[in-house]
């Protein structure tokens, strides 16, 4: 029987009930799953000796040291899209198949980004806070803007950007521009979107929505210099990874009226510290890293966590789109990549 460990059961994105369901389904497939919660690479190494599979519901530290200390490790399975806490180079060099779930919550991310945008444009969160504070701010606050005349800028044009494009292009008639150096222009035949350089995205967008992974290249790309190029009444929305924005620079830009508003689902440190200035700013809408959360996304997440591992370890077949480290020679003998 193969050995598997879920190393961050208390992360909060997958309930214990659902983890136990996965455990029972794995048992039927010849995989013994332990549910643990390790916070350091040392704990993972100590608790995962002789394991074949590591599962992470969040962002556990699967470092080079972890990978090289676990010679039996064959698969790392993430319950989501981001793999920034996994050393993909070390995984490839050591024959460890790294699986993730691109697209499992694409619609949910788009819906959430749209909700943040419309909440800001229509003052929803602002009014709600004032009313709960026993105020009645009728026709007060920032004057709501008609989205039809605005420009939506998408940083990254992947799975979650496309449904957001549809919402605002088809629904409101916005002009949409995008910055994504990895997308081929010919793949945009079905989209009326203009690919632009990063600086043009900053200068021309009224709304910027972030849909890119966290990498060395994207970390803190939205910083003091970037905010100075944006429109003074612009909106920035982040449902991707917190560290794509340099948070201190964002706070400064909002305080100095260099940009207008922010809608944030992700942050550099989570949960937010009680003294974080974002908590007291009326021009900011905050949600607790929950843009991925939805009924269909949950079903995808749980079923894929079962099927992807089973397909790879037992059926020796896996679709390339679910592999995060594309260049590797697997320890799984006879593994076919489809």
- Do you know the CATH topology of the largest domain? Rossmann fold
| Count of β-strands | 14
Shape: globular
Low-confidence stretches: none
Question: What percent of residues are in strands?
Answer: 15-25%
The pLDDT mean sits at: 96
Q: Radius of gyration over alpha carbons?
A: 21 Å
Largest sheet: 7 strands, parallel
Helix percentage range = 25-40%
- Secondary structure category: alpha/beta
CATH H level of the largest domain: which superfamily?
NAD(P)-binding Rossmann-like Domain
Number of domains: 2
List keywords for this structure.
Rossmann fold, 7-stranded parallel sheet, alpha/beta, 5-stranded parallel sheet, 2 domains, 14 strands, 338 residues, globular
What report would you give on this structure?
33% of the residues lie in helices and 16% in strands. The protein is α/β, with parallel strands linked by helices and 338 residues long. It folds into 2 domains: 2-104 and 294-337, Rossmann fold; 106-286, 3-Layer(aba) Sandwich (Rossmann fold), CATH 3.40.50.720.
Short précis:
This protein is of the alpha/beta class and 338 residues long. The protein is built from 11 helices and 14 strands.
């Amino acid at each position: 029987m193969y050995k598997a460990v879920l190393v961050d059961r208390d992360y909060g994105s997958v309930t214990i009930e659902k983890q136990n369901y996965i455990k029972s389904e794995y048992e039927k497939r010849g995989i013994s799953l332990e549910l643990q919660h390790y916070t350091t690479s040392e704990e993972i190494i100590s608790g995962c000796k002789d394991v074949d599979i590591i599962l992470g519901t969040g962002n556990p530290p699967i470092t080079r040291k972890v990978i090289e200390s676990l010679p039996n490790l064959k698969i790392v399975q993430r319950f989501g899209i981001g793999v920034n806490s996994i050393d993909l180079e070390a995984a490839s060099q050591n024959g460890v198949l790294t699986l993730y779930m691109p697209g499992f919550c694409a619609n949910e991310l788009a819906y959430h980004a749209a909700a943040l945008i419309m909440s800001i444009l229509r003052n929803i969160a602002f009014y709600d806070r004032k009313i709960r504070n026993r105020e009645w701010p009728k026709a007060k606050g920032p004057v709501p803007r008609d989205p039809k005349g605005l420009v939506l800028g998408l940083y990254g044009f992947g799975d979650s950007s496309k449904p957001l494009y549809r919402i605002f292009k088809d629904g409101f008639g916005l002009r949409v521009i995008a910055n994504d150096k990895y997308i081929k222009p010919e793949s945009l035949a079905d989209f009326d979107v203009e690919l632009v350089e990063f600086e043009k995205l900053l200068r021309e967008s009224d709304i910027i929505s972030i849909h890119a992974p966290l990498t060395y290249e994207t970390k803190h790309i939205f910083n003091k210099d970037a905010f100075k190029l944006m429109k003074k009444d612009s909106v920035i929305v982040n449902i991707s990874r917190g560290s794509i924005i340099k948070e201190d620079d964002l706070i400064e830009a909002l305080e100095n009226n260099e940009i207008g508003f922010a809608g944030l689902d992700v942050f550099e440190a989570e949960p937010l510290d009680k003294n974080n200035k974002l908590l007291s700013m009326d021009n900011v809408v905050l949600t607790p890293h929950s843009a991925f959360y939805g009924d269909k996304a949950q079903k995808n997440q749980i079923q894929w966590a079962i099927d992807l591992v089973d397909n790879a370890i037992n059926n020796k077949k896996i679709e390339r789109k679910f592999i995060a480290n594309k260049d590797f020679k697997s320890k799984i003998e006879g593994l076919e990549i489809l």
